[in-house]
Amino acid sequence: MSTTRGYPRDAGLAARMTFVMFLLGLLYVAVMAALIAAGVNFAFVFILAAGLLFAQYYYSSKIALFSMHAKEVSPAEAPQLHGIVDRLCALADMPKPRVAIADTDVPNAFATGRNPSDAVVCATTGILRRLEPAELEAVLAHELSHIRRGDIAVSAAAGATLGPVLRVAPGAGRRLADRVLEGREAAADVAAVGLTRYPPALVTALERMRDEATGAVRRGPSGAALLWNVAPVPAGTADTVDVRIEALLEL
User: Fold this and answer.
1) 185 is catalytic
2) Once rounded to an integer, what is the mean pLDDT over residues 143-168?
3) Chain-centre distance for alpha carbon 176
4) Of 143, 182, 185, 246, which is the active-site residue?
């Protein structure tokens, strides 16, 4: 594992995510081919597929914020949140993303965008109310690692690809989505701790959300990398919250 300006980079995880994205692309093409074979006009299928991919990828951050009823906030509107993001971005030597707040009591945070220049980091009002400053810093360090490591680009591409695929081949699409997610959250935990140097803060933040959240609210917006996105992750993998907490305790 190498380090890039404050965040470690896991080459093996990056390679696995790239391979799975390739498989998602093949599945997307297969779905389009099936529609054509079923008699749907080729030009219509091509234009529809290209249009959906472009719109869902290019506007991934706007779609994610809209689906969470989130809005961007200025430093004057959320000074503590901006202050923490400013400090972490300085430590990581990375551009500061836009900052948003989602008005929901569900404790969560996510990063979204097609690339670092389009990135947004968002916290819910629920998580802002519940976490202590050190815990919130750990959570935001986790989300910023998704931006710095390029995870949000994978999320945006997966969100754009999986929309039509899940309607036609939900089983295969969900299994591939699980493979994209597997290992990513645990790696972001390690990256966050590498930046903050304080594992207990992220441990207690994860414990709070594990104890308070319900299965109905664990899924987040398509095209976003969430702190708490347990529902689609197979039990026993590196990304289940209990396994993540155990790994952090070992640190």
Assistant:
1) no
2) 74
3) 15
4) 143
C-alpha to C-alpha distance for 251 and 247, rounded to whole angstroms: 7
Of all helices (H) and strands (E), which one includes residue 49?
helix 42-58
For residue 32, give both structure tokens. Answer: 């389009």
Chain-centre distance for alpha carbon 206: 16
**Angle at CA of residue 138, ends 208 and 96, nearest 5°:** 135
Task: Give the distance, in angstroms, between the CA of residue 78 and the centroid of all CA atoms in the same chain.
Answer: 22
- Record the tokens describing residue 209, joined without a space: 């959300």
Query: Per-residue confidence at 150, pLDDT binned at 50, 70, 90?
Result: confident
40-43 contact pairs (CB < 8 A, 24+): none
Furthest-apart CA atoms within the chain: distance in Å? 58
Domain boundaries, the chain: 9-250
pLDDT (tens digit, 9 = 90+) per residue, 3-44? Answer: 444 555 556 656 666 666 676 677 777 777 888 888 888 888
Residues whose CB falls within 8 Å of the CB of residue 23, separated by 6 or more in sequence, listed in order: 176, 179
CB 244 within 8 A of CB 189: yes
* Full-model pTM: 0.73
Instruction: Tell me the residue type at 200.
Output: P
The H-assigned helical ranges of 93-169 are: 125-130, 133-148, 151-168
